[in-house]
Amino acid sequence: MTIEPYSPADARTRALATRVAGRVRRPIVLVGLMGVGKTSIGRRLSHILSLPFTDADEEIERAARMTVSEVFAQFGEAYFRDGERRVIARLMAQGHGVIATGGGAFVQPDTRALILESGIAIWLDSDIATLVDRVGRKDTRPLLRGGDPAEILRRLQAEREPAYAEAPIRVQSGAGPQAETVQRVLEALDTWL
User: Fold this and answer.
1) Residues with Cβ < 8 Å from 142, sequence gap 6 or more?
2) Is residue 184 part of a domain?
3) How wide is the angle at C-alpha 54 spanned by C-alphas 86 and 132, nearest 5°?
4) Distances (CA, A) of 70 to 56, 60, 92
5) How many domains are contained in the chain?
6) 3 belongs to a structural domain
7) pTM of the prediction?
8) In angstroms, rounded to a whole number, what is the distance separating the alpha carbons of residues 158 and 144?
């Protein structure tokens, strides 16, 4: 995916990004439900902050030499979550700038504790209608197989919200342009830092 550079009209965003980037000393870790935009927002955020970007699920697939769906099918969710925790720990220890996690990563107590201790957790949140629209574009989500996506996402949202709420920063990721969400993330980071 090619990230288009911000235009000169985005001078305010660039100034804000420069101010934020100069104060970030830990990995920025994006958490939230599937479809909320952790990977796409993460790529844009890393670009404007001039920090490296890593998608934890892609790293898991590289390490396992299997897709996330295949790992779930062959070994189960508990096995996947253990590997996910180890991969996130490695990425954070290596000082990766922006990390997009899988939707269930932050729900796991050990993974959540690691992220809260060593990173800056940002909960990207969204309404269910937007999530359903986004997840309907791909058929690679093991937790959505065999059911109504809206119903499953509502259940996951209810179950996971208490864990996500432990993130010190929460930003709405709406149906609008991704640049708006990136701007909100930068503003929230600036305030938090």
Assistant:
1) 68, 69, 72, 73
2) yes
3) 95
4) 16, 11, 25
5) 1
6) no
7) 0.88
8) 15
Question: For residues 185 and 124, what is the distance between their CA atoms, to the nearest angstrom?
Answer: 9
State which residues form the domain around 65.
23-192
Give me the CATH number covering residue 184. 3.40.50.300
Beta partners for residue 104, in sequence order? none
pLDDT score, position 8: 44
33's tokens:
């439900």
- Tokens found for residue 161: 């919200």
Q: Which tokens hold the place of 131?
A: 């999530």
Largest CA distance in the chain: 50
The mean pLDDT values, 10 residues at a time, for the chain of 193 residues are 52 87 94 92 94 93 88 88 92 91 94 96 94 69 66 91 97 87 94 94
Report the distance separating Cα 154 and Cα 147, nearest Å: 12
DSSP annotation of 4 reads P
In a domain, 73, yes or no: yes
Q: Is the dihedral of CA 110, 115, 116, 118 positive or negative?
A: positive
